[in-house]
Amino acid sequence: TWAGTDGANFEYNEEQRKFLQENPKKYLEYRKQIENELNQRFKFIIKGSEEANQAREFSYQEMARKLASKPRLADKIIPKNFNPGCRRPTPAPGYLEALVAPNSHIFTDAIGSITPTGFTDSTGTHHDVDVIICATGFDTSWLPKFPFVAHGTDLRDLWSDGKGGSDVTSYLSIGIPTFPNHFTFCGPYGPLGHGSFMPLIEKWTAYMFAVIEKAQVERIKALTPKMTISRQFRQHADLFLQRTAWTSPCRSWFKQGKTDGQAAIYPGSRLHFLELLKQPRYEDYEIEYLDDNCFAWLGNGFETREFDGRDITNYLGLLDEKDEQPDYDKELINVLAGWTLDK
Predict the structure, then answer these.
(1) Which pTM value belongs to this model?
(2) Which pick of 134, 156, 184, 287 has the fewest CB atoms within 10 Å?
(3) What is the spatial distance between Cα 250 and Cα 254, in angstroms, rounded to a whole number?
(4) Band of pLDDT at residue 1, cut at 50, 70 and 90
């Protein structure tokens, strides 16, 4: 809705930038309208939904229009057995247009072989080329590139499926069962399938800070997501994901480049995820304390604000919005003290 023609990027002109600078509330409304549109897209991921049908029809019409000059190519490229969302959309505006350009020739079958001067196609015909670029994508197996060990177990072994891929169980995408004090941004089963990452990064960060603060205050040595809880979360996710386009028979990076790979995506919308991570569920963790008595952190019985100059009645609200001991109105006692009623 807000992009350039056919979804292209654009540069804000001087008038638009001036408008945003002078109207901060409208700038917020502009951001909210864009985010509002993004937050509704999860509905078309659900198989059989009206939104899914509309998204498929829109995508089909757009692709058919842009590939109209080469019907053979349209027949090969437009998906027939899965809906939008199963794979990522085409890379960028201009991609489909490039495929039908007069100076391009598209092979849709596997090549025969690569030779010193080019390659042979599926019919055995040789083609000379200047450069071959192998766009094989990224390793999305979730396996780290280096030893990552906790309690003698390497995460690469824990998550390996034995076939060069991965079989992962995470805790809400942010933690790993049996790995203490480890938190990550968008681990397995994170909401990586739709919408902007910015609010998600902020939520992961706030969650981590909350855990760190609790560990510092309560002298906690280690917090480890429970394996039983993590497995239950994965069981729920795997069952829910059967309702989504992500588990349709497409080959996608969501599933490590396989048609039937593990779709380790969050089982819900972004709003659903943001609410889940609103505050840590410490009951889901094994907690180990630095002291033998878990209440040793209560210390000498005083709160630090009783000595550091902060407001010692902050629970009633703050005067002048400052958390510091107020300079109280000394005349107020002459107005509201009980003994003044006897005068």
Answers:
(1) 0.85
(2) 134
(3) 10
(4) confident
